[in-house]
Amino acid sequence: MELQTDQFYVYFNTRDEMCRVDMRQVMYFKADRNYTEVFFRNGTNLLLGVNILSVEKVLDRPVFKGKIPVFIRIGRSYIVALKYIQHINLTNQQLTLADNILPTTYHLSVPKEALKKLKEFYSQKVCNQ
Known about the structure:
There is one protein chain. The protein has helices spanning 52-59, 112-126; strands at 2-5, 9-13, 18-22, 26-32, 35-40, 45-48, 71-74, 78-81, 85-89, 94-98, 105-109. By secondary structure, it is of the alpha+beta class. The strands form three sheets. Strands 6-5-4-8-7 form a five-stranded antiparallel β-sheet, sandwiched between helices. The chain has a three-stranded antiparallel β-sheet with strand order 1-2-3, with no helix packed on it. β5 (35-40) and β6 (45-48) form a beta hairpin. It is globular and about 45 Å long.
């Protein structure tokens, strides 16, 4: 996979395709075997021809790092944008993502242990700023 980035976009370039992803619009990434599905604020989605580990490595680049990470890995299947986290429900094992501008809301089923770690991270890093 060849990769290029600019201020807001990542270009995923594989042997058979090229996909431009506006990282400001991404709510989350979901693993799908050797592919990764990208879910956007407007309710659309895109299937990338790369696995979630490759996406995680892209997001680990300095251009996407700051004092607080923009994206965080949750369990084996998800990478979510921190700014869209609306609700963490340990009892129902559910994570809700929304932006309060567009009507799109995502409800993700996440294992309880992964949600506990997310809640702890969020409480320590984000709420104490």
